[in-house]
Amino acid sequence: KALQLTLAVIKPDAVAHPLIMKALHQKILEHKFIIVKSKDLVWQRQDSERFYAEHEGRFFYQRLVEFMASGPMRAYILAREDAISYWRKLMGPTKVYRARYTSPNTIRAQFGLTDTRNTTHGSDSVESAQREITFFFPEFHAQEWMERLEPSFRA
Ligand code: DAT
Ligand code: MG
């Protein structure tokens, strides 16, 4: 089946906890994602503002951009069949308390601290995955990566 790429990010709240990092890395492998690329990085505030520009003006925006620039993150390009929706499903709902109530086995339910400090990011569409992969990994060429795969795995 065709592989799809998504961007997954482990946010600063989770990177601060080695055991949570380990659990999330294991979850990625358990669910048969291919780790195409990964890197640890720290955002400047303007990276945060650029990435979350769509939320500018929302009540949580300042909190969000400060938090995302508050410490190291780990970013992954993940490949899998239906990677985008699959990773979103593993993450669970944006709001941690809703996640705990409606989907207790998700990452955000298990490890999230607050609605802002919610442990992980995942792209929500093919377009956002492309944009976000380029944002984090400007040197990565998805097309070339796909072309190196056996034809049956290509999108
Ligand atoms: P998601 O991360 O599930 O794609 P989003 O794109 O709507 O959610 O929002 C981006 C981030 O902004 C989210 O991970 C945490 C923060 N955020 C969203 N809604 C929030 C709220 N109601 N209160 C606090 N932070 C919020
Ligand atoms: Mg989003």
TrEMBL record:
This is Nucleoside diphosphate kinase. The active site is at residue 121. GO terms for cellular component: mitochondrion. Its EC number is 2.7.4.6. Belongs to the NDK family. It catalyses: a 2'-deoxyribonucleoside 5'-diphosphate + ATP = a 2'-deoxyribonucleoside 5'-triphosphate + ADP. Residues 3-144 form the Nucleoside diphosphate kinase-like domain. It comes from Clupea harengus (Atlantic herring). It comes from the Eukaryota. ATP binds at residues 11, 60, 88, 94, 108, 118. The chain holds residues 11 to 165 of 185 of the full protein. Keywords: ATP-binding, Kinase, Magnesium, Metal-binding, Nucleotide metabolism, Nucleotide-binding, Transferase. GO terms for biological process: CTP biosynthetic process; GTP biosynthetic process; negative regulation of cell growth; negative regulation of mitotic nuclear division; UTP biosynthetic process.
